[in-house]
Hints:
This protein is mainly alpha-helical. It has helices at 2-27, 35-48, 50-53, 88-97, 120-132, 136-147. The chain is 53% helix and 0% strand.
Amino acid sequence: xxxxxxxxIVLVAAIGSAVVAWWWQGRDRIDATDKALVERGRxxxxxxxxxxxxxxxxxxxDWRIRKPSGELPAPPHDASGHTWHHDDEYLFxxxxxxxxRFAPPDYKSAMPSFVGTLSDADIxxxxxxxxxxxxxxxxxxxxxxxxxx
Length: 149
């Protein structure tokens, strides 16, 4: 009898662990098809990102030409830019920590860190909004980058 109870406890714990792992895995996804997440991201983007990257994700003019300060202008996040050339993990990290963490020491960038300003969930929502604006073909190409990890 005690052996049955022991196996029952083990089975319940295993099932519970599997359910928690499944739930947690989906929690960190940047899902451009999640309408609530995209709408949340749209509002956060308008408040935290649009000033530099543009209300329509168009970036600053001449975004490939350095300013007199040596910084590159803010790039577009629409399909015309290069955002979709990066996987979700990189986009999340650059948004959270700023570009300086990933660039050579002498690289100049105005991209700030959002640590303490935006939560991880806020950043995922913004990225979901950005991705939701891309054509299906570009979304598929960017999603393929996520599969390589």
